[in-house]
């Protein structure tokens, strides 16, 4: 028997909300939107928001709560909602809160989702988790505090409506959110395109270190912890680098690698025209994502890992 998200909310008194570790725009947008929706329409409910720090550029335009830390909480929730996370382990320090909740509800759009909840609403062809969430909520009960994070999430996961996952329904939703007063330019420029001077310097380092492989079919670059330190940035300040590689003329696959620890790396993969399903490579390394945008974390010798990723790209390209 299925249960709608609205039914689950109405049946619960104590509600927890979370998303995946290292939250991106879609994760931030969907979690904030649901939190604000419950606060607005169900003031009698107790709702708690668990997430890593909301990026500063997004916090500027969002009416976002201060995130709680799951490591410092041992409460039991009637309902715990996971948004934009494809697997249980991606909830990080909030896994134990999700596991012991009375109702475990998953809302997502990743085709690699493992359906780890009691109820799993996963729409694989949706542009974003925010698009999925929009369809689960009641439009007439939305206001600007809900519309802004939903629009932000859609903007980020569609690359400002450029990616192939953007469909008619996506644009219809965007239009309905604009009708609620969303300032499109402020969200797009302020949270997607605008970069600090230090981030521009980091991009310059990344492009200077970039290499072409397979006669220009693949572009890849690596940012180390020392690179980040040299411009005074953190691991959360690397957005946009893989996208710049993807936009390079003639490149089909873009690979951005970030050193997160000793022999520990985060890979971000992009496929420009879908000739290679990069989610298959991510799954190989126990990561996840979409056919044109995916990622994973891995430990080991970076040269050997890159060599293997390039091998997998060739293998999947030949099978396309």
What is the strand content? 15-25%
Mean pLDDT: 95
The number of strands is 11
Task: Provide the CATH architecture of the largest domain.
Answer: Alpha-Beta Complex
- Using the coordinates above, name the CATH class of the largest domain: Alpha Beta
End-to-end distance: 38 Å
Shape: globular
Number of domains: 2
Which fold name is given in CATH as the topology of the largest domain? inorganic pyrophosphatase (n-terminal core)
Our Rg estimate from Cα atoms comes to 19 Å
Order of helices and strands: HEHEHEHEEHHHHHEEHHEEHEEH
Strand order of the largest sheet: 6-7-8-9-11-10
What is the helix content? 25-40%
Structural class: alpha/beta
CATH superfamily of the largest domain: inorganic pyrophosphatase (n-terminal core)
The number of helical runs is: 13
Query: Biggest sheet: strands, sense, closure?
Result: 6 strands, mixed
Low-confidence stretches: none
Give the SSE layout.
Elements: H1 5-10, E1 14-19, H2 25-41, E2 46-50, H3 56-59, E3 79-83, H4 95-99, E4 103-108, E5 119-122, H5 129-136, H6 144-157, H7 168-179, H8 184-193, H9 197-209, E6 211-213, E7 218-223, H10 225-230, H11 241-246, E8 253-261, E9 264-271, H12 278-284, E10 288-289, E11 293-299, H13 302-319
Helix pairs in contact: 2-6, 5-6, 6-7, 6-8
């Amino acid at each position: 028997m299925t249960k709608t998200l609205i039914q689950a909310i109405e049946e619960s008194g104590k509600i927890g909300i979370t998303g995946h570790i290292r939250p991106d725009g879609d994760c931030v947008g969907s979690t904030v939107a649901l939190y604000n929706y419950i606060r607005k329409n169900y003031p009698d409910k107790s709702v708690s928001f668990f997430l890593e720090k909301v990026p500063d550029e997004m916090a500027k335009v969002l009416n976002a709560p201060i995130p709680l830390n799951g490591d410092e909480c041992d409460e039991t929730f009637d309902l715990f909602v996971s948004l934009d996370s494809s697997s249980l382990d991606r909830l990080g320090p909030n896994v134990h809160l999700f596991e012991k909740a009375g109702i475990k509800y998953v809302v997502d759009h990743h085709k690699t989702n493992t359906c780890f909840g009691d109820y799993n609403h996963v729409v694989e062809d949706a542009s974003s988790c925010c698009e999925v969430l929009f369809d689960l909520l009641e439009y007439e009960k939305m206001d600007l505090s809900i519309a802004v994070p939903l629009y932000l999430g859609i903007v980020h996961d569609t690359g400002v409506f450029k990616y192939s996952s953007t469909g008619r329904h996506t644009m219809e939703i965007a239009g309905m959110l604009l009708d609620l007063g969303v300032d499109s330019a402020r969200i797009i420029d302020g949270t997607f395109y605008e970069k600090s001077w230090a981030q521009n310097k980091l991009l310059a380092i990344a492009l200077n270190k970039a290499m072409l492989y397979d006669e220009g079919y693949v572009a890849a670059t690596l940012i180390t912890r020392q690179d980040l330190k040299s411009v005074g940035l953190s691991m959360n300040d690397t957005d946009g680098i893989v996208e710049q590689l993807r936009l390079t003329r003639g490149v089909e696959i873009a690979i951005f690698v970030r050193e997160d620890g000793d022999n520990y790396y985060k890979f971000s993969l992009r496929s420009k025209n879908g000739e290679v399903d990069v989610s298959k490579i991510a799954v190989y390394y126990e990561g996840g994502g979409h056919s044109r945008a995916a990622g994973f974390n891995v430990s080991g010798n970076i040269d050997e890992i890159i060599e293997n990723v390039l091998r997998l790209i060739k293998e999947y390209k030949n099978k396309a």
